[in-house]
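Demo today. Your pick:
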Amino acid sequence: MAELSGLVQRLEVAVGRLESMSAGGGGVSGPAAGSGAVSAYVEAYDGLISGPVAQYAALSQKIGGDVQKHAEMMKQAFSCQRQLLVTASRSQKPSDAALAPLLAPVSKVITEVQAFREKNRSSPLFNHLSAVSESVPALGWVAMAPKPGPFVKDMQDAAMFYTNRVLKDYKEKDKMHVDWVNAYVSIWSGLQAYIKQHHTTGLSWSKTGPVASASGGAPAPPPPGPPPPPMDFGDKSSGGESGAVSRNALFASLNKGSDITKGLKHVSDDKKTHKNPALKTQTGPLPTGPKPFASRPTAAASPARTLPPVLELDGKKWKVENQEGAQGLVISDTELKQVVYAFKCNNSTLQVKGKINSIIVDNCKKMGLVFDDVVGIIEVINCRDVKVQVMGKVPTISINKTDGCHVYLSKDSLACEIISAKSSEMNVLVPNKDGEYTEIPVPEQFKTIWDGSKLVTTATEIAG
């Protein structure tokens, strides 16, 4: 069955090539220019689709269920990206505004892949879905410059946690799932090699041909015509001549300059409401119209500032801030009185060596923390998808307002207290004798009853 599915994939690719050849080769750069065939780098991408992607799809079909559905969506994503590559090989690079519609089909499928995983959290194959969902943003490499290859590597690493779990669950049960992991990982390894060869510093566009557009490389639309003629402010019911007279009278009044106020009537003090408050009650309530300037359009929000990354010792505090995609951050020269504060670090890893007082991880996403010993507390606040690993001892771990937190305990830290509030998707991994980890979810759902004298709260298992 796997061989048959792979053959179907190769036939689909061949049909795509024939369709491209029949459409003509205008604007093709490289050796294939003028021959009606696709460019060299599109052919290389076809090899990726007919190889690792087809193998992954075939194994997903054998596994079936949600994994097969996910694989169908991934095939669509690669197909959309291939079409973008064909466009790039025949067209010149457009402006950033015009590029967005070209990227939209791939972006849409990426969103659908991730949404499918979120809708199927109760799936028995959730780890498979998570591995794909965490790494599918790698297809956004076409919008990355100047390092699309390392970006794909980062996304591949993001899937490693879940692919390792699949291997752990199935290595003794079903080799097909192990093969599935190897096939899926080889997609991103192959894509990195492909990018290194053909798109090292970003998506390669043709030097000739029309500027690319979402309509298939057609030239940009012509500029808009001249503005409409000025509106006639005159009374149309009285004829054009009367309207012209009214306009002339208005302009003549405006041209009086400072004399324009001579026609205004003087208001005596006894008729001014701010000097005679009693007049306000005689004239009725004030109008309740809109507040001044309420109808003005709000100013466009200023773009968010990108702050520089920080890794420094400030007094007794190690500050690790604004790190983006920083793998392998290390703090080694530590003392017992020092603390570590990690703030707004995304897709990064931090290792803290030695024994320190405390660690705070605040507003971080996809952050990995490994540390030796903490004598106080580890706090995880306002975070998403973080992993914390204890190599030595820690007495207390606090998790607040966090979605997705995995805590790896060492044998020496099994007695630590884990305190959580307003958080979800928390798991504690406890080491076994053989060195493997047993994953235990932290309760998120509770039942409270009145026993006649006090409230009694117990944890309940989440259904599904």
The CA atoms of residues 443 and 459 lie 6 Å apart. The chain has nine helices and 16 strands. The longest helix spans residues 65-90. The two ends are 32 Å apart (CA to CA).
